[in-house]
Amino acid sequence: MNRDLTVGKPERVLWRFCLPLFGSIIFQQLYNIADSFVAGKFVGENALAAVGNSYEVTLIFIAFAFGCNIGCSVVVSQLFGAKKLREMKTAVSTTMIACAVLCATLMALGFLLCPSLLHLINTPQELMASSLLYLNIYILGLPFMFFYNVATGIFSALGDSKTPFCFLAASSLSNIAVDILFVTAFSMGVAGVAWATFLCQGVSCVFALLVVFRRLAAVETQERAPLFSLPMLRRIAVIAIPSILQQSFISVGNIVIQGVINSFGASVMAGYSAAVKLNNLVITSLTTLGNGISNYSAQNIGAGKLERVKQGFTAGIKLVWMLCLPLVLLYLLAGRSLVYIFMDQSTGQAIDTGVQFLRIVSPFYFVVSAKLVADGILRGAGAMKQFMIATFTDLLIRVALSIVLSRPFGPAGIWASWPVGWTAAAALSLIFYHRGAYLPRAQAVPTAEE
User: Fold this and answer.
1) Are 17 and 298 in contact (CB under 8 A)?
2) Is the pLDDT reported for residue 269 higher than 50?
3) How far apart are CA 168 and CA 145, in angstroms?
4) 98, 69 in Cβ contact below 8 A?
5) What is the pTM of this model?
6) Which stretch of DSSP H or E encloses residue 252?
7) 255-280: b or e for each residue (b if 16 or more CB lie within 10 Å)?
8) Measuring CA to CA, which residue among 216, 195, 165 is closest to residue 18?
9) Alpha-carbon distances, residue 341 vs 58, 169, 331, 347 (angstroms)
10) What are the DSSP E strand ranges found in 216-319?
């Protein structure tokens, strides 16, 4: 069901819209958590390390899918808020066509370059074959991931956060069951983990696209919407390309950090792999809430209701901090039990590494969540320059400190780079927001004919 986010009490509207998004990303993260859980519990520590090692490479592909999601979502939100429905349909179809071309290109590059990337990050020889196998199957499923991300972006742009939640809940729970079936009953090892994700994400993608096309067909316009518009593609690219670059550089930075981590051996890799899944569960959830704030902001900017954007910022901070509090306490007090979920032994260097990571990083979720709320408003307004400055500051600090501090302090020095990078970037994002970086772009609503 489409929902107008430009009417109603901002705090109530934002909460009703964002909470299903939060639930959706929890289920989305179950894909990756299930992979690591099954690999660690039913195959072994090396399998867990291989899946975690491959995950850093998959983040590059996820960055492009995320950019397509954001670019389409922000523009469609602005057009929906401005009631320009014909142009909105053109934005959707233009994104779909561009997404197909981009996805085919990335698949070709992925098959060609992934072996070199695995060597580049110092993948231990005993993990190379499993890591490459996982990645090759993952690349085959890229069309499902790309088009599913675009579909969820469209749902969010139309104010509907419940439909993607239902899809993700069903597919994620199915993925866990199929993971276990393929690995235990069919003894498929790491390949079983990858094929389970491929299958479940594929089914979810097909159903999501069917609902999107049906939803758009019900939107009546006086004239037929053009299937493709180069000016509209440029408008979408203005949002999508910086988002892709941001996520891509973060992924490259994570790959560099993964290379530093790999130098400490398979046990540290396994511990980091488990802990970073738990960390990414929180960060990705907060990022998704930031995306919801982008949709809220874009609709209201399209409608010219800037005061509601400011009210949305305050409501967003309350929302993310209320969600952060129990998660921080959980990771601090029960970190060892949570990391053990992914392990076949309750003691050892791998467990200790994961617990150490969570204890250093988790208290700063309050800081990074404030950054993500401010980023959501900047991105919803198209203030991508400021958004990228803050994000790259975080990345550069984390990569540099990981390399420098790992020498005297070992893995703990790497983990310490997260809080420093987050704090510096949060300060910049909040400064840009309070200076009104989004205001000059308030009337920049794209059309298909421009």
Assistant:
1) no
2) yes
3) 12
4) no
5) 0.70
6) helix 230-262
7) bbbbbbbbebebbbbbbbbbbbbbbb
8) 165
9) 23, 21, 13, 12
10) none
The rounded distance, in Å, linking the Cα atoms of 354 and 349 is 9
Q: What is the pLDDT of residue 345?
A: 66
pLDDT at 449 over 50: no
Give 170: exposed, middle or buried? Use CB within 10 Å, 0-12, 13-18, 19+.
middle
Helix (H, G, I), strand (E, B) or coil at 6: coil
With tokens 């550089």, the residue in question is 249
User: Rounded to 5 degrees, what angle do the CA atoms 362, 363, 365 make?
Assistant: 70
Alpha-carbon span 177 to 199, nearest angstrom: 12
Share of the chain above pLDDT 70, in %: 92
Q: What is the 3-state secondary structure (H, E, C) of 338-383?
A: HHHCCCCCCCCHHHHHHHHHHHHHHHHHHHHHHHHHHHHHHHHCCC
**Cα-Cα-Cα-Cα dihedral sign, residues 348, 350, 356, 358:** negative
DSSP string, 280-297: HHHHHHHHHHHHHHHHHH
Q: How far apart are CA 119 and CA 138, in angstroms?
A: 18
| Torsion angle in degrees (nearest 10) through CA of 382, 384, 390, 391 | 110
